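Dear Dr. K.,

Following up on our conversation at the group meeting, I've run the structure prediction for Luciferase-like monooxygenase from Tsukamurella pulmonis. I'm pasting the input sequence below exactly as I used it, so you can double-check it against your construct before we proceed with anything downstream. Let me know if the numbering doesn't match what you have in your notebook.
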Amino acid sequence: MDYGRPVEFGLFVTPSAAALENCFALAQLADGRVEFLGVQDHPYQQAFVDTFTLIGSLLERTDQVRVFPDVANLPLRPPAVLAQAAATLDLLSGGRFELGLGAGAFWPAIEAMGGPARTPGEAAGALKEAVEVIRLMWSGERSVRFSGEHYRLAGVHPGPRPAHDIGIWLGVGGPKLLRHLGGHADGWAPSNSFFPPETLPERHAAIDDGARAAGRDPASIRRLYNIFGSIDDARSDEPFHGTVEQWTERLTGLVVETGMDTFVFGAEDDDYAQCRRFVEEVAPAVRQRVAEVRAGG
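The predicted structure tokens came back this morning:
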């Protein structure tokens, strides 16, 4: 399954307080060479700086790359306020912010910070509501209302509006949420550590079912894959490890056979040399190979 979307790339950034200079170096490496920087969001990690504040700094230090939380921790970021923060970053950067959003994980840590302790069903319901709330806050309407089980808006005056139509990309995996994504969100953002390649087709099918039921084109939905591994000089039998040629073959197959279109690479300890190899060697090779395969039918 190839949805025919443009193939895009990015780097995964850890918001480590002890490695901020490396974060900034990765941003400079990505700017103008790949499309995205994804910044993980775990506010309860004492070694991490705040993801949204860091994203503001990354956007200020770059000119072209688009930056997004990969993915934002919804239970600790109320959606109405999250929408305003997202719109602000988008306005300040001239339209270079996107919104990855997750239902939450590591619930004891979330609860320890004053967040809610949610069951899986409650977390899914809150995520669905949050997407609606965020869109209402970006709507430009004079006043909006929303009454849900987890969130409500009681005649709030929404705003500001973002500089562009910010994509909402969900980091989900269950069939019900995937179908909901197909009807209501703009992208899917799984990771290979939780969803290996063989699990992807079934999940694409759920997204596609939801999209068609909502009258949407399944190809309008981004399929982003966070990929963690290593680029080596020797061949490897381990997935997402090995030579540039092996990476090119694997990622090309994920595009033209499996339906992914965006790859965000994460190296161990955010290793700069590994990230440079991905940006300078793997990404161009995959772009070229996908174009050749598509041109050849």
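Two things stood out to me. The two ends are 13 Å apart (CA to CA). The longest strand covers residues 222-228.

Best regards,
J.T.
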